Amino acid sequence: MSEIERITALEARFNEAELKHVQTMSSLMVALHDIEDLKQFKARADQIFAALAVQSPPGTLNPSPEALLKNYEIHSEQITTWVDLLGKASIWYLAVTTAVVSYCLAKPGPTIRLAMVLPFLVGLAQIFIYSIGLRGARNTHLEIERLATRLQLHTSPDARVLTMTLWFNIGWLALVLVVIAWLFFAIPGLPPLKVMPP
After folding, report:
1. Considering the chain, what is the average pLDDT of its residues?
2. What pLDDT, on the 0 to 100 scale, is given for residue 62?
3. Which of 2, 60, 72, 190 could join 147 via S-S bond, C-beta 3.0 to 4.6 A?
């Protein structure tokens, strides 16, 4: 191996070692930056936790900030879950009611009308359940506001969406029940619907 080849090989190894050194230094700088971010986050968390400990009235249990945060997360997730379930229940009820009423209108008769009793009873049950849910929605709204205040959060989910959804569902269910009752009592011998040819 000539002197030039040996110098070239040493220079390549030096460049490779220098590149590894630069990469290691970059990684260390990123890690140091992350450590500083973590220190700032911990300092802010310590301030919040200290403020939470002071806010508890004397003679009451002082739950840990982690427990408060977990409780807040549970209540916040409940809102989206309940609104989702309300939507699914409404769609299911509408589908079943439409199918039963369509069948009753297509095949009228004194006994087939009794099939409309099922959607009527299910609608009454849903209105009853939604009415009970209104009280729970109010309590959830108050609890989320209380926890957001204790945790010093600037924003929190608006639990009134759940209350408005419940009222909307109660309203449209009442309207559907009125229509079903009218179909049941007012038109017992309704002739089948016929589609006119174009």
Report:
1. 79
2. 66
3. 72
| Same domain assignment for residues 72 and 104 | yes
Residue type, 76: S
- CB pairs under 8 A, 24+ apart, for 61-66? 65/151
Element (H, E) at 31: helix 3-55
pTM to 2 decimal places:
0.57
pLDDT digits (tens, 9 = 90+) for 83-121: 888 889 889 998 989 888 888 778 767 667 778 888 999
- Whether 193 is covered by a domain: the verdict is no
Within 10 angstroms of residue 162's Cβ, the number of other Cβ atoms is 24
- Domain stops at, among 17, 41, 62: 62
Rounded distance between C-alpha atoms, residue 49 and residue 61, angstroms = 15
Task: List pLDDT tens digits, range 138-161.
Answer: 888 888 888 888 877 777 777 788
Are 151 and 65 in contact by the 8 Å Cβ rule? The answer is yes
Closest CA to 86 of 23, 186, 151, 164: 164
Pull the structure tokens for residue 125: 């049950």
- φ, ψ dihedrals at 172, nearest 5°: -75, -30
Residue 90: closest CA among 181, 162, 170, 159: 170
Residues 8 and 91 in one domain: no
